[in-house]
TrEMBL record, chain A:
Keyword entries, A-Z: Membrane
PANTHER family, sorted: OUTER MEMBRANE PROTEIN RV1973
Protein name: Mce-associated membrane protein
Main location group: membrane
The UniProt record lists the keyword Magnesium: no
Originating organism: Streptomyces solincola
Subcellular location: Membrane
Taxonomy, superkingdom: Bacteria
Organism placement in taxonomy: Bacteria, Bacillati, Actinomycetota, Actinomycetes, Kitasatosporales
From TrEMBL, chain B:
Keyword Isomerase annotated: no
Signal peptide as annotated in the record: none
GO terms under cellular component: membrane
Alphabetical list of PANTHER family matching this protein: OUTER MEMBRANE PROTEIN RV1973 (PTHR37042:SF4)
Subcellular location: Membrane
Superkingdom as given in the UniProt entry: Bacteria
UniProt organism field: Streptomyces solincola
Keywords: Membrane, Transmembrane, Transmembrane helix
Protein's name in the database: Integral membrane protein
Main location: membrane
Length: 176, 242
């Protein structure tokens, strides 16, 4: 009796604590796994990734300095894919000539942006980016105007890139 | 302890010995008649004797092993819980825009209706604008809206103004519980049936088309959900002025 009473309380306590710890470890491991494999979390992360890629790409495509045309247009190319890239590539020589003549410096600032559609399976998304574009002519004051940009993004191996970009039409009948 | 060991050894010798009537009775948990001084209230069990050395070892080592396991498992529990909490604490997760499809479309729908009602004005029914204010605005948005619409209200009756605002695009930037921020593109049609000199167009880039002017507007609204309805709590003109 003496032996059992001296051994058991300690052993029981130790076993109990170990069991509690094992339970805690199991729960922690499970919740960690669940958090890491949470589909809506992954979707939310993609949404934020798309927004920042979209805002950056829209800003890139509204930024151009005639003094560094080549790098500017290379950035345009790197921000685009699909149809938009085809358009930009086709129009590049003509565009270069125009900007060299106009000698303008265009900068853009993203005021606000939102992802309106996101399909992670097909890798396509739509964004709205409210932009302020400032065009500085060689002589005269900078001219700023707001742009209501609508963009479509496509997932590429190099990340999300713009495949379409335009301004929301004004004065048209309501479209969804 | 030495007494115990001595006792155990003795017990083992006894059990190893050729069947003794004494030992045979032991499994029936009958106390072995040993001097009381030697076996202090020991449940005399010859069967329990063989595992004794092991259980003695377990008696000493097991708590240590269990303690080590407790520490390791506890450390893992704390660490993994921390990892899970860190993952769940991602700012992206606090934003249910698009991830909660139902809520996202509810916010978009209600705010599109609110914006259309708030930024439309009909000189024949100016009371509708007041109703819209009561239904869709809260907090500082009330004052912001009043300032934005002041020119329209001042000139409305005289110019016989009809201002119609339609939300063409909207996107939920943030949706966190009962708070939301929505980016809005809206078209405005401003019709004056009475001749007037100065336009009171709301948005930028107003272009005249007869006595009807079209304007494009972009702004963000912050909204709170109270009593099942989203109300605009602030209007962010995105630094564009009014």
């Amino acid at each position: 009796m003496a032996r059992t009473t001296t051994r058991n309380p300690l052993l029981l306590a130790a076993a109990g604590l170990a069991l509690l710890a094992a339970g805690g470890a199991g729960w922690g491991g499970w919740s960690w796994y669940a958090a890491a494999h949470d589909e809506s979390a992954a979707y939310a992360a993609t949404r934020d990734e798309v927004l920042s890629a979209g805002e950056q790409a829209v800003q890139n495509l509204n930024t151009l300095d005639h003094r560094d045309l080549r790098r500017g247009l290379d950035t345009w190319r790197d921000s685009a894919t699909g149809d938009l890239l085809t358009q930009l590539t086709a129009g590049r020589p003509e565009f270069e000539r125009q900007i060299q003549q106009a000698k303008t410096v265009t900068t853009a600032k993203v005021l606000s942006g939102a992802v309106t559609e996101l399909d992670t399976r097909t890798g396509r998304a739509s964004v709205m980016v409210a932009l302020r574009v400032t065009v500085t002519p060689p002589k005269g004051a900078p001219n700023a105007k707001e742009s209501r940009m609508l963009g479509e993004l496509t997932r590429t191996p190099q990340g999300w890139k713009l495949s379409a970009l335009g301004q929301a039409p004004v004065g048209s009948a309501a479209t969804g | 302890m030495s007494t115990t060991r001595h006792l155990v050894n003795r017990r083992r010798r006894l059990s190893a010995a050729p069947p003794a009537p004494r030992a045979r009775t032991a499994p029936a948990a009958v106390p072995v008649p040993v001097p009381a001084s030697e076996a202090p209230a020991e449940p005399a069990d010859a069967e329990a004797a063989p595992p004794a050395p092991r259980s003695r070892l377990r008696g000493r080592r097991a708590p240590l092993v269990l303690a080590a396991a407790t520490v390791l498992l506890g450390a893992f529990a704390a660490w993994s819980a921390g990892q899970a909490a860190a993952l769940r604490d991602e700012p992206a997760l606090h934003n249910a825009a698009l991830t909660d499809v139902g809520r996202t479309s509810e916010v978009k729908g209600q705010l599109a209706t609110a914006v259309a009602a708030l930024f439309s004005y009909d000189h024949t029914a100016p009371a509708a604008a007041d109703r819209a204010v009561r239904a869709h605005l809260t907090g500082k948005a009330v004052e912001q809206h009043r300032a934005m619409l002041a020119p329209v209200r001042a000139q409305g009756p005289r110019q016989k103004l009809v201002l119609t605002t339609t939300v063409t695009h909207s996107g939920v930037e943030l949706l966190d519980g009962d708070r939301a921020r929505v980016l809005v593109y809206a078209d405005q049609r401003n019709t004056r049936t009475a001749a007037a000199k100065d336009a009171a167009g709301q948005g930028a880039a107003a272009k005249a088309a007869g006595d009807t002017a079209y304007g494009a507007a972009m702004f963000a609204v912050e909204a709170v959900r109270t009593g099942g309805a989203w109300r605009i709590s602030a209007i962010d003109t995105l630094g564009a002025g009014s």
